[in-house]
Amino acid sequence: MSRLVTALWRGEVPLWKTFWEYAVVYGFFVNTVATIVSLMLFSADEALWGLIVHFLPTPYNVLMLTAVWRAAGKYSGRTEWATAARIAAVIVFPIAIVA
Fold first, then answer.
1. Residues 89, 97, 26, 2: is their CA dihedral positive or negative?
2. What is the tens place of the pLDDT at every residue in 46-75?
């Protein structure tokens, strides 16, 4: 697992895999679960735990932003795809933190 995290951090995983598999699919799952659980905690008057759970995915989201950015920098295909991936990552990052 640490090898994968290191490879993602360094941008060594191909852009398509970093973006679609790790950032989009797994990121959607991680953030959705955290949001649902935190809302359940807030509704149970457990605000502190709700905040903690809400922000638990933040390190993953930082990793994905960095991984997509660096993988895009190493992408050898059309520059439009690398630029689009970087723009999407930058737009989605704050949304994932707030939502």
1. positive
2. 999 999 999 999 999 999 999 999 999 999
- Domains of the chain: total: 1
- The DSSP code sequence of 44-93 is TT-HHHHHHHHHTTHHHHHHHHHHHHHHHHH--S-HHHHHHHHHHHHHHH
Tally the residues of the chain: 99
Tell me what the pLDDT averaged over the chain comes to.
97
Q: Please state the pTM of the whole predicted model.
A: 0.93
Closest CA to 81 of 96, 23, 89: 89
Supply the range of the domain harboring residue 58: 2-98
Q: How far is CA 44 from CA 31, 39, 56, 63, in A?
A: 20, 9, 19, 31
Cα 84 from chain centroid? 16
**Residue 60 one-letter amino acid:** Y
